[in-house]
Amino acid sequence: MKRLFLFLMALICVLALSAQSVYDFTVKDDLGNDVSLADYKGKVLLIVNTATRCGFTPQYKELEELYEKYEKEGLEILDFPCNQFGQQAPGTIQEIHQFCTANFNIHFPQFDKIDVNGDNAHPLYTYLKSQKGFGGFDLTDDMGKRLDDMFRKRDANFDKNADIKWNFTKFLVSRDGRVIKRYEPSDKMSDVEIDIQLELNPVLSTMMARRSIRKYLDKPVEHEKLEVIIRAGINAPSGMNRQPWIVRVVEDQQLIASVTEVYKQENAEQVKRDKDFKNMFRNAPTLICVCTAAQGDGELDAGLLGENMMLAAQAMGLGTCCLGGPVRWLLSNEKAKFFVDRLDIPTDYKLNYIIAIGYPDEQPEAKPRDASKVKYIK
Questions:
Q1: CA–CA gap between residue 48 and residue 171 (Å, rounded)
Q2: What value does the mean pLDDT take over residues 215-227?
Q3: pLDDT tens-digit map of 191-207
Q4: Euclidean distance between CA atoms 146 and 8, whole angstroms
Q5: Which residues are the active-site residues?
Q6: Which end of the chain is more exposed for a tag (fewer CB within 10 A), N or C?
Q7: In this predicted model, what pLDDT tens digit does every residue of 60-85 receive, in sequence order?
Q8: C-alpha distances in angstroms, 38 versus 17, 25, 112, 129?
Q9: Which helix (H) or strand (E) holds 111?
């Protein structure tokens, strides 16, 4: 019997970790009915483990305010009471629901009580934790420091595992089912709201989802898609509408392969260290080459052009990476002159940067941004 139990637990973990999105899971609502999270496709989700007798319980009020404010725009808050932290969610789900409606007038859906850690953790939470591990408490916040001190006294390495640490941990899920952010209970609800707004707006969510892609599938980009991307690019703003750029789109696989052979000969050791090396342009099947005036004019406008194209590519399911290193190599290497000549660049222009573009074969995490570099002058 014990072996059977261990086998079932291992099977649940494997199934959870093999899931592709939150839509692969089924949960029970407050009446015990099965609910497929696929019912929430197209919604932005905030998934929260809650408790009714916790110092963070007043967050129910803030969650309800978020729900009332953004429900019509596509936000759903999914509440999973959990009694694992200080046993602060006692009672049945019906009693919990009655408490929450009476004290906080909540309207977002509550689901049956679950475990979020340990052998009996719900597979949904096993998956959520696998997608976004514990990133630490905000030590600039008093409550964050107190929580860090409390957990570190119990276990000096508590931050090394992905377990849920306390009540009111939150996961933000995009409209297409990707787990994009995790918030600890001491994180500011104002920060959560900003991220919700970014996800609800399709333009802003595209901006937030874009990453530099350095691994691509062996799949060419359809010419029709490239035309749309280029159209988005050339409609970027430019000073006095001068449009001081020219663009060359390289779809010729043989041309890319030929210049890569030259690169491999001159950078043999570097290529050898990269087991995934296919070509010198981050292995992308297609290149967008952006040129500006040889005298250095128009670079700001060309940057706006490039950003438009990269965001358009992201919106169409493609990945991009803006490259400068290959440009420097191409312009300084006589053996690569045939590639530059093929681009047919006018003599009063120069190759400024190259955008590698293709179908992504990776999903890199966002790198942290330093918000302290921003100051508001009021």
A1: 7
A2: 96
A3: 999 999 999 999 999 99
A4: 38
A5: 54
A6: C
A7: 999 999 999 999 999 999 999 999 99
A8: 17, 8, 18, 19
A9: none
CB 226 within 8 A of CB 251: yes
Helices (H), the chain: 2-18, 59-70, 93-104, 123-131, 142-154, 189-200, 202-209, 223-234, 253-266, 268-273, 299-315, 325-332, 337-342
Amino acid at 62: E
Question: Within 10 Å of residue 267's Cβ, how many Cβ atoms?
Answer: 15
* DSSP β-ladder status, 349-358 and 319-323: antiparallel
pLDDT digits 0-9 by tens, 269-297: 999 999 889 999 999 999 999 999 998 88
Strand (E) or helix (H) holding 249: strand 245-250
Handedness of CA 141, 144, 150, 153 (dihedral sign): negative
Q: How far apart are CA 165 and CA 51, in angstroms?
A: 13
Picking from 35, 41, 44, 9, the residue whose alpha carbon sits closest to that of residue 23 is: 41
Taking the CB of residue 287, how many other CB atoms lie within 10 A of it? Answer: 24
Token representation of residue 264: 């491999």
At residue 340, what are phi and psi to the nearest 5 degrees? Answer: -65, -40
Q: Residue type at 248?
A: R
Angular region, 32: left φ>0, alpha ψ -120 to 50, beta rest: left
Number of H helices, E strands in the chain: 13, 10
330: Cβ–Cβ under 8 A, 6 or more apart, which residues? Answer: 259, 336, 339, 340, 351
Gap between the terminal Cα atoms of the chain: 67
Name the strand (E) or helix (H) holding 212: none
Neighbour tally for 54: CB within 10 Å: 18
DSSP class of residue 71? G
Instruction: Determine contact, residues 70/108, Cβ cutoff 8 Å.
Output: no
Amino acid at 155: D
